[in-house]
Every structure is written in C-alpha cells, then in structure tokens.
Amino acid sequence: MAATALPPLPEQFKSLQHHLRTGQELDKREPVVAYYCRLYAMQTGMKLDSKTPECRKFLSKLMDQLETMKKQLGDNEAITQEIVGCAHVENYALKMFLYADNEDRAGRFHKNMIKSFYTASLLIDVLSVFGELTEENVQHRKYARWKAAYIHNCLKNGETPQPGPIGMEEEDYDAESEEASSSALPTQVSQPSSSTYDPNMPTSNYTGIHIPPGAHAPANTPAEVPHSTGVTSNIIQPTPQNIPAVDPSLYNAQSAGEVRLTPEDFARAQKYCKYAGSALQYEDVSTAVQNLQKALKLLTTGRE
Question: Where is each Vta1/callose synthase N-terminal domain found (predicted)?
C-alpha cells in the first residue's frame, strides 16, 4: 500500500476522485491495478492543471505514491512490462464487467453489481495509459456506465429494472451524490478474477451481447454483498469451464517460415500469449486456450 498521504483533492481534479478511490480500495487486493489507477490520475491530472500551486502539490504527492508502489512491485512483470500490465488491468476490468452483467441478466439487482459496472468503466478509462482504447473497450465502458446509471435510477425510484441489454438512453450516474445519500454504494469493490472477454458488442442498442458458454461469474467474484447494502447475500458457486477444442485447421497451417510476418503481427501474437498467461494465473483454461489459438493462427497464417 502506498505510504504517502495525499492532500485534499483540488477542484480541478474532481473528475479523478473515483479513479483514485478505486486505486485505494484495491491497494491490498490488486496492487498492480491500484498502481495503474494512480498512474492514470497522474497523467490525466498533468493535462488538466500542472501549474496551480494546489494542483502541483497534489501531483507531487501522487508521484511519491507511485514511486513507492513501483519500488514495492519492482519485480512484478505487470509493472516492468507494459503489455503484461495492460493485459492484467484489462482482464480485471472485463471480469468485473462480466460479473455485473451476469447479475443483471439473472435479475439480481443490488448496489454491489451497480458498483461493479461503474468500477469496470473506470478501469477501462485506466487502460488509456497504455495507448488508445480499442473499440470493444469503448463500447464496454459506455454500456457499463449506462447500466450503472439505469439500474441505480430504477432502484432509487422504486422501479424494477429490465434485465440485459435494452434500448440504451443517455443517463448520468452521479456516484458522489449517491455516496452522500443514505443509499450509498458499498465501499468494497467486487473482486473478479482475470480473463479476457469478448462479447462482440454492437455499436448501438446493445441487443447482441454474446456471453461465451460457461462464462458465468467466477469462483472468486464477491460471495456476498456487504452488510451495509441491506441486500441478501447469495453464494456464487464456481461453474465448470467449457474448454474450447483446438481448431483443426491449425494442424494443417503452413509453416511460419512461409509466412511474412510484420512487427505488428509479432506484437499482437505476444499480446495474445500474455493474455493467456494472465488467464492461467486465475486458472481460466478456456480463455487461455482461446488466446493461444489466436496467437498460433496469427503466427502460422499471418491472419487473425
């Protein structure tokens, strides 16, 4: 955990408060993700205001936190190698999204799943420290924020939310106001495991989100909702994994020596291998196999 206490958040950095809070909540459980939450706040804060005295003071203390964390995590590949760090944060964000999405589709509406949707969207923001967001991540973020707002507003107004993807409307979710009210969100962030998740979201209305077979909430997602929410807890049992069969066409693929691969191809193949390694850390065999197949296909055919 970062040792340096931060001064009060300047008004100019108000938009970063939830990213910083998420980092604080994950300090013990997911220090790598917590580190990148702060790095995102640092980079964004520098762009917002790096000249005002109070902003400079805040950024200086935040930089001290980052340096302390970097020393503590110095031997972690997710800190020393950006591609591993990106995979780690993305997998965590998308698994959190999947947990909330499964709760939503099952009609289990509670504040912990709202928190999971909203936090997943914040962590997708954090992915921008590694470069431009993919279109899939942009769609995940938009959908997660809308779902958090929609379900929150329904519960607040005593209405029953409609499960799953429906016609999306723009709604604002003010987490700060919600936390200040008597129906505040729980302070604990849901704990997902890590794997990639590609629901192939359409660009509008979100009527075709695809949940991979067997991709239900993993064993180490929240086993219960915090008591402060007043929601009855339900034990989530682990679901047997559906391990995909190896694509037979890969056995007959031409050898890599006959394929001209670009540096970008090698980078993408490396990314898939890193995703697979990250998934195996959480015993997610299905996701590991899928990503290794993608890497193998790319390396043997030059195509994805």
Answer: 16-157
- Secondary structure of the chain in HEC code, one letter for each residue: CCCCCCCCCCHHHHHHHHHHHHHHHCCCCCHHHHHHHHHHHHHHHHHHCCCCHHHHHHHHHHHHHHHHHHHHCCCCHHHHCHHHHHHHHHHHHHHHHHHHHHHHHCCCCCHHHHHHHHHHHHHHHHHHHHCCCCHHHHHHHHHHHHHHHHHHHHHHCCCCCCCCCCCCCCCCCCHHHHHHCCCCCCCCCCCCCCCCCCCCCCCCCCCCCCCCCCCCCCCCCCCCCCHHHCCCCCCCCCCCCCCCCCCHHHCCCCCHHHCCCCHHHHHHHHHHHHHHHHHHHCCCHHHHHHHHHHHHHHHHHCCC
> Is 257 within a domain?
no
CATH number reported for the structural domain that contains residue 275 in this entry = 1.20.5
Domain count for the chain: 3
Q: What is the CATH number of the domain that holds 75?
A: 1.25.40.270
Residues 69 and 129 in one domain: no
Residue 289 belongs to a domain: yes
What are the tens digits of pLDDT across the range 175-197?
Answer: 544 443 333 333 333 343 333 33
Residue among 32, 199, 3 at smallest CA distance from 130:
32
- Cα distances (Å, whole numbers) of residue 280 to 41, 91, 185: 29, 12, 32
* 76 part of a folded domain: yes
- Give the number of residues written for the chain: 304
Residues 55 and 109 in one domain: no
Check whether residue 15 and residue 67 sit in a common domain: yes
Q: Which domain holds residue 101?
A: 96-157
